[in-house]
């Protein structure tokens, strides 16, 4: 599967393997992560500021709480809420469209829109379908919302970043625009997607790339995760700008990631256009509770999750409220927890990567997350983006 159109018309059904074929490493310039974490009683999402910047520049705040009480009760009673059901982070079947260089999946009901996804550095398109905990949750949330999911892959197969940096060896705009045309020509009508709203969603370098497509490609809305994007990206559009853009930043993002909430806010202000509204969501740190890892990672048992929590507490990695004290990318917390997290069908490297993704999200620095995704989707699709 390549990110560019190879001119070959074809597709094949892909049943996800029990483990990703290529384990990702760290991240050169990646992402953001997660959804509702559950614990032995009730886990609250808490208050998260949502900054809204519209034509008048008004700023409001809202809060959101988790409604995971039923799942939390099951976990507190030692009963897995996923018994007899699919774990929300389990693999998702997908199709491959060779001519456009995309992977795609359809919702169980009549589609109400199409989400085009762009991964971050060190990730692959297939990780939105293979069991990478937070990536798969994003895909499942989009499908549950009635959106078809179409995933592109970057040309640079070494760093796997999109061609948005000065050092990038390849450009991705032309291959993606060609791929979009091929997918529209060969699949949209056949799959019942013609005329539906199109949302473009990118993560880290993929989010930066989405801002480069704004004004170049027709889209109904854009969602940029953990990236401030291209400076001045909306000033000289070749096609109509989307009516709305949604942004998600992580509260701990700062420094070299260039995606802190303040940096994203500055980018929004710099690219405010009369015909385009912006709204920013900010993800907050989450606690590592006794059953968090069982809830976040398909294949981790309740007992394994509890033991990992105990090790984290004993090792001094958690605060009194069970928040991760220091950046897990810079401590040995993964090394301490890994021995109790053996998962059938996974290599140690794969388990390490899954654990890393979840810990990074809990700490809330540059990771994937499905936090707020349902409301961001509704914000972008509301009244087909009429102002």
UniProtKB/TrEMBL annotation:
Spans through the membrane: 31-51
Alphabetical keyword list: Membrane, Transmembrane, Transmembrane helix
Region: Disordered, residue numbers: 1-22
Gene3D superfamilies: alpha/beta hydrolase
Domain of life from the UniProt record: Eukaryota
InterPro entries, A to Z: AB_hydrolase_fold
Name of the featured protein: Uncharacterized protein
Organism the protein comes from: Chromera velia CCMP2878
